[in-house]
Write a structure and sequence with these properties.
This protein is mostly helical and 177 residues long. It has eight helices and no strands. It starts with a helix and ends with a helix.
Length: 177
């Protein structure tokens, strides 16, 4: 019963994250050109995503880590850590704006200070659920699960960056390469 409750909460949080991360693609606000550019951008990103995922699962197999633990960790990094980090960053930004309204230092460095303090611990948050569902005892396996969660977060973050670039200038991604 306990594992079922943990799995239900994990899937619920994943569904919230899936909706949060994909709303821009599904609400019909993108033009055909933006969808095309997104496709090309994601295709280019696959040049690092596919080898990274291949080596992740290959090492997991070599270290006898259950594949479902890796998949849950990857999904948690993609659809759990991202939206929680986004909300936490926003709330801390608003709080600092209220506490220190005219701070030139915070205006210049707030993102560089707050984002790592919020995002890095939240990348490991999916591991709480994964380890509660699938016990893993080896330290190197825990390390690999952390890598999987961080990789999932990075994949979704890269796609979000592509969206922001597409909103500004459709030719910008190709000038960046």
């Amino acid at each position: 019963m306990k594992k079922n409750s943990i799995l239900f909460i994990f899937i619920l949080l994943l569904c919230i994250g899936l909706q949060y991360e994909t709303i821009y693609y599904t609400d019909g606000s993108m033009s055909g050109a933006e969808y095309g550019l997104m496709g090309v951008s994601i295709f280019l990103a696959l040049f690092y995503m596919i080898p990274a995922l291949y080596f992740l699962f290959r090492i997991g197999k070599k270290w006898e880590l259950p594949k479902n633990a890796l998949i849950l960790s990857l999904l948690g990094g993609m659809f759990l850590s991202g939206w929680l980090s986004s909300f936490a960053n926003t709330y801390i930004h608003d709080l600092l704006g209220v506490l220190f309204p005219d701070s030139a230092f915070l205006n210049a460095f707030e993102s560089a200070i707050v984002a790592p303090l919020v995002e890095e611990p939240l990348k490991l948050f999916p591991l709480v659920f994964v380890l509660a569902l699938i016990p893993v005892r080896k330290l190197k396996s825990l390390f690999l699960l952390g890598i999987a969660s961080g990789l999932g977060f990075q994949i979704i973050e890269d796609i979000a960056i592509f969206v922001r670039i597409c909103q500004r200038d459709l030719t910008l991604p190709f000038r960046e390469f």
